[in-house]
């Protein structure tokens, strides 16, 4: 049972740690409207799932090695069975060999009366050797039986331990996956409640999954598929999932301060839109394929924010970084774009 215990110990420990983490974090995000905390919880959950999945793959690799060891043991077991089969030959064969010796011709009496010739003595020596070989075979057979029983027990223990350990880890991964999905659904529901429009079949919900944000970064600037973007509360505009979630939180804080939502004139721009703006407004747009708008990480604002020094602009300067948004240094002078704001995932992760 030592093998089984060693296989199960890491999984049991991991399961206990996961349970502890759940209880701790359950106290951290009681308010489902806290989008930032929900997003971070989803990311933490995804990380746990990733680590558990890696642990499962590692365990499966260990199990594969154990199965190889098991195969070796079973092969050894088959060899022992073969050797035992040879040793189980009827003892009568040995007896027949004894009868074939010259003892039968010379008789035992000459030996007993000290009249035995050389042939009789050789026959008796051969008989003694045959008896010794038989005794050795009996002892070897007994030892082989014990070895067979030991190998069979080890093989059974290895297989049972492997199956149990894999099943337990797989169940743990499945639990973490369900938990991650539940958190993302809660986050999506909170976004819908705050005005994010998601179609009836939930296609847009995939774009609002913060766990897909990094995947959106795999696409070239301006070529992110629509399904990988999350719509804003402001109709017709969208961003990368993490940027949208942070922007919605910022927008709600802005609404609380000014009694109205933020005014948006631009968000994600595909490559064609970047080219159009670049040629229409030379000097006020990045070279197509290099704009942060094409990454789904920038917005252009109106409603007062576009005027440097306004109450709205000053409020944004003081509060936007709390949500991962900032006004880039170049936008203060070259070119002067007070309306342009960008989202930094790294900044948001430190908040």
UniProtKB/TrEMBL annotation:
Protein's GO biological process: proteolysis
Coiled-coil residues: 35-83
UniProt cross-references to InterPro entries, sorted A to Z: DD-CPase-like, VanY-like_core_dom, Zn_M74/Hedgehog-like
Gene3D superfamilies listed in its UniProt record: 3.30.1380.10
Name of one Pfam family that matches: VanY
Domain of life: Bacteria
GO molecular function per UniProt: peptidase activity
Residues of the D-alanyl-D-alanine carboxypeptidase-like core domain: 238-345
Record key words, sorted: Coiled coil
Protein known as: Peptidase M15
């Amino acid at each position: 049972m030592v093998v089984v215990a060693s296989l199960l110990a890491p999984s049991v420990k991991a399961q206990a740690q996961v349970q502890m983490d759940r209880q701790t974090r359950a106290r951290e995000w009681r308010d489902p409207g806290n989008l930032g905390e929900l997003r971070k919880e989803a990311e933490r959950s995804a990380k746990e799932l990733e680590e558990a999945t890696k642990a499962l793959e590692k365990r499966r690799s260990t199990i594969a090695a154990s199965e190889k060891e098991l195969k070796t043991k079973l092969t050894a077991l088959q060899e022992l069975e073969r050797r035992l089969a040879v040793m189980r030959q009827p003892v009568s064969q040995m007896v027949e060999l004894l009868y074939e010796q010259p003892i039968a011709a010379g008789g035992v009496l000459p030996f007993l009366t000290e009249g035995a010739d050389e042939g009789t003595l050789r026959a008796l020596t051969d008989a003694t050797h045959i008896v010794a070989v038989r005794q050795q075979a009996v002892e070897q057979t007994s030892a082989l039986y014990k070895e067979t029983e030991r190998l069979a027990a080890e093989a059974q223990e290895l297989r049972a331990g492997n199956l149990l350990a894999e099943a337990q880890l797989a169940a743990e991964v499945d639990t973490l996956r369900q938990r991650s999905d539940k958190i993302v659904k809660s986050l999506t529901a909170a976004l819908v409640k705050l005005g994010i429009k998601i179609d009836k079949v939930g296609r847009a919900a995939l774009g609002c999954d913060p766990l897909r944000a990094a995947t959106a970064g795999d696409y070239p600037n301006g070529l992110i598929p629509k399904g990988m973007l999350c719509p804003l509360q402001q109709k017709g505009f969208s961003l990368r999932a993490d940027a949208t979630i942070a922007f919605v939180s910022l927008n709600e804080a802005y609404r609380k301060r000014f009694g109205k939502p933020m005014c948006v004139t631009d968000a994600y721009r595909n490559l064609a839109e970047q080219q159009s703006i670049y040629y229409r407004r030379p000097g006020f747009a990045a070279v197509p394929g290099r704009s942060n708008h094409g990454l789904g990480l920038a917005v252009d604002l109106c409603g007062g924010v576009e005027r440097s020094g306004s109450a709205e602009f000053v409020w944004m300067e003081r509060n936007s970084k709390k949500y991962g948004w900032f006004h880039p240094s170049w936008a203060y002078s070259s070119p002067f774009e007070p309306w342009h704001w960008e989202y930094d995932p790294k900044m948001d992760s430190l908040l």
